[in-house]
């Protein structure tokens, strides 16, 4: 992998703790390239005691970092952003090698990830307070917002860069320090952020990356350690619940970006070509492995057959392959378990009357490559209706009217992203207001941006990432009442 990089020193395999690159007391764990199955790096496997040490150093470093002016913090964060963009190609190559997404998507993720550092660098200067007219003649009331302290993050493999920057940007801008535990599948994209943080001049201990093969041990340390005041997690609802329970002992402030089960609705007045394009972006981006990917595609009866046909035509132009090859559209799935899940959803759908009209099986490239798949005749009793596939399978459900589809779309414990295509204005308002989701894409399949608040309702999460609201998650409000 190092030989593919313009700057081979960006391939970091030791953990980044308080400005030092350290070996793991538990040895190393292997990182593999999902496209080829070969080991590309052995990464430091830290012990729980080493993570506790990183937290202690983060606590010490945070005291001074909190005293920096917003403008001072903004300057080093801006340098961090600049370095990410300067090395965008190398960061993209590392990301593709360990995660599998095509290079173009990986480079896109680096730009997207970096944008959170840029945005929150700017926000660092705008952590405003309030003055409130006193409740008595002698009283003066001021509200200030202060960094909460040490933040700990746990992130998944599907966006190895952006899920970390989305948390580190606001945390550091607010004046918190952060200890980041990346997924064991994708530690290299996190470690290179440590290297670039060092080059940018982010003070030692303000940002650390603790790599470990044991997620639950690290999760326990994050929740039990009294120095940690904030836990920010992206991952499954199942693990989110575990962490919330653990965090309860310390009444720790938590942000949770959890699972989705996004509906994608095509009404009969939609621009069908645009809807097909949106579905391709939304369902098949990252090979279906995002929490905002369309999971259920509802198509109104009058346009159902036409939509299914156009979607298949469009998919037939796309190439499955190694993400490191420039013309690849869809890479491999992350691991064998991910392939099993897609298979399970397909088998379940077939047993309940669904039909495969495109793809449906493992790709002839072998390994974890899977054909993009369309299933028609999907129904609400299928597993895919309640459970995220996290893979390249598009189930098409048929519906007759608005009320019916709104009820079906909301019939889930999740509430992250949803999408619909329609032209009628009153329909657009009515449906957007009725969908119980934190994010609504209207006539678009792509909704992620650093300038908007990303997050879910119901069991999809707590809190928001991005936008001016994102920094609130790392701030405490303090009210000062003064008698004059
Ligand atoms: P995904 O399906 O995206 O991997 P998970 O919720 O399983 O979603 O994992 C998200 C992140 O949480 C990963 O980095 C994983 O290692 C970590 N994780 C899994 N289980 C636990 C746990 N019990 N405590 C802390 N972190 C965990």
- In this structure, how is the largest beta sheet organized? 7 strands, mixed
Which band does the percent of strand residues land in?
15-25%
Total E-strand runs: 20
Question: What sort of overall outline do the alpha carbons produce when their principal axes are compared?
Answer: globular
Keywords: Oxidation, Oxidoreductase
Family: Belongs to the aldehyde dehydrogenase family.
Domain Aldehyde dehydrogenase: 21-480
InterPro entries: Ald_DH/histidinol_DH, Ald_DH_C, Ald_DH_CS_CYS, Ald_DH_CS_GLU, Ald_DH_N, Aldehyde_DH_dom, Aldehyde_DH_Superfamily, Succ_semiAld_DH
Task: Describe the protein in words.
By secondary structure, this protein is of the alpha/beta class. 37% of the residues lie in helices and 21% in strands. The protein contains 14 helices and 20 strands. The chain has helices at residues 48-65, 70-86, 88-99, 103-123, 162-174, 188-200, 215-224, 237-248, 272-284, 304-315, 336-351, 383-386, 402-410, 425-434, and strands at residues 15-17, 20-22, 28-32, 39-44, 130-132, 139-147, 150-154, 177-181, 207-209, 228-234, 253-257, 262-266, 294-300, 355-358, 373-378, 393-399, 417-421, 439-442, 461-462, 475-483. The strands form five sheets. Strands 14-15-16-13-12-17-18 form a seven-stranded mixed sheet, with helices on both faces. Strands 9-8-7-10-11-19 form a six-stranded mixed sheet, with helices on both faces. A three-stranded antiparallel sheet has the order 5-6-20, with no helix packed on it. Helix 1 (48-65) packs across helix 7 (215-224), helix 2 crosses helix 6 and helix 4 (103-123) packs parallel to helix 5. The model has no long low-confidence stretch (mean pLDDT 98). Adenosine-5'-diphosphate binds at residues 154-158, 183, 215-216, 219, 235-236, 239, 242-243.
